[in-house]
Amino acid sequence: MRSNANRKHLMQTLSPRHVKADEALRLGVESGWYAIKVSGTFVSGPHDSEGECRRKIDEIHPPLVKKKR
Questions:
Q1: pLDDT at 21
Q2: Cα–Cα distances in angstroms (integers) from residue 46 to residues 5, 6, 33, 34, in the given order
Q3: What is the rounded distance in angstroms from the CA atom of residue 1 to the CA atom of residue 12?
Q4: Across the strands, what pairs with 16?
Q5: pLDDT (tens digit, 9 = 90+) per residue, 5-61?
Q6: How far apart are CA 43 and CA 57, in angstroms?
Q7: Among 6, 36, 41, 63, which one has the highest count of C-beta atoms within 10 angstroms of its own C-beta?
């Protein structure tokens, strides 16, 4: 059984997604890079580049750091 902390981490996984002009018009947003949840929900953006978007994702949800024993 997974702990609530692990479940929460899995649910908050964000990924970068580029929204082109035609799709942006349809969605009513600006074109650019967005941090999105697995569900497709936009969390942050638009960002000018994929790198900028990834930096924001790391800021919102820092990568796990393994503890040394």
A1: 97
A2: 29, 29, 5, 5
A3: 19
A4: 35
A5: 444 444 468 999 999 999 999 999 999 999 999 999 999 999 999 999 999 999 998
A6: 9
A7: 36
Give the pLDDT confidence score for residue 12 in this predicted structure.
65
Conformation bin of residue 31: beta by default, left when phi > 0, alpha when psi is -120 to 50: beta
Maximum Cα interatomic distance, the chain, rounded to a whole number of Å = 51
Residue with tokens 């930096």: 55
pTM of the model: 0.73
Who contacts 14 (Cβ-Cβ below 8 Å, separation ≥6)? 35, 36, 37, 43, 44, 57, 60, 61
